[in-house]
Amino acid sequence: MAKKYKSLRGIRDISGAEAAGFNEIISKASELLEKYGYERIFLPVIEYTNLFARSIGEDTDIVSKEMYSFKDKKGRDISLRPEGTAGAVRSLIQADQLSGKIRRKIYYFGPMFRYERPQKGRYRQFYQLGCEVYSFPSPYHDAEIIEIADKLLKLCRVKDYSLGINSLGCAEDRSSYKKAVKKKLEGKVEKLCPDCRRRLKTNTLRVLDCKNSRCREIYQELPGMDDFLCDDCGDYIEKLRQILDSRGVKYSIDSGLVRGLDYYNGPVFEFKVNDSAVIAGGRYNKLVRELGGPDMPACGWGLGMERLVAAANLEPASQKKAALIKVEGGRIETCRRIADNLRNKGISVSEGYEDISTGKKFKITDKNRIVKVVIIGGEEEKNKTVTLRDMETGKQESVPADDVESLARKILAKKILARKTDV
Ligand SMILES: [Zn+2]
Ligand SMILES: [Zn+2]
User: Fold this and answer.
1) Which end is more exposed in the chain, N or C (fewer Cβ atoms within 10 Å of the end residue's Cβ)?
2) Confidence (pTM)
């Protein structure tokens, strides 16, 4: 049958194992963040366009090329959010939650939108989870968010990730660094890609982000930002390194790390897997002020959900799932009672009420990748038992119907794989 309706180009549905992974990561992240005193906030996906232009920067690729912008019915300029921080800051200022406050810690999760050319692993609607600390600048806050990210990656059993950190310094440091970069590139401008030639005039440091191999080669000769840090900025990143060392967080200094947004200053960092950033963030001390709020420094990170799910090694949720099948002679009341008992033990139980053959019911559980099936029929009713079947091995056993502990334990038990020689 021809499909009449399709999702928009570059926008996809998330289901099955990937959706289960989203769920798992959101719950791990929320639990972790709340232990550190972060509160979840729910933010709109649409904002006035000028909010993003002001915060992210007019000349960034995000704002100049990739925003989903349109006019609403009253002709107002609206955009779908391309990232979460601008909206979070707008919201906290609007609700007057920053003035006179010592500290505010928040986190959010939701879809973000960028109108990029669709390609593998890049979607126009993608999901981010982010956390932010609004407080006086202390490297302990920077260290805390980095430590949380590190813990989360460990909880998700991400293998072989690396953490790079850098300092972008204050405005003065950056302006002397920019001058040095421009000077060093004099006479080489013709060799740079068109994007870099433009960036060199409008947003000099962004050239360091360039992926073009010829540009990269030229930039290798550039001095590092760390040579241009003032005493305060130098001390700050040094203190951050000491805290990370003392907490056993492994990192390396990545002097090419500049981040694609205008609002960063001071420390920035990226957790990478296979050369792509999974969690990235930094400090933005002027953003709240810039958007009309009080003088409130902040730092935070954003996590790319699609990338983390792909890199994570999560326990299959199927281990906590069971299906309950009623066959001839089984009573619906018994099924419901046993299903509820198992749910109270943290097991997800789906009951089938369809009046179909047992074979078909087995097929359905198979399709849903449910391994453990609890069967209740006439024989079981008579003996006050249930039959527990492992769909992968075909093994069946009888368990007393009201021995919930034992039944739950058997469902949750790690599967013992048949040895090859047994077959
Ligand atoms: Zn400085
Ligand atoms: Zn370039």
Assistant:
1) N
2) 0.86
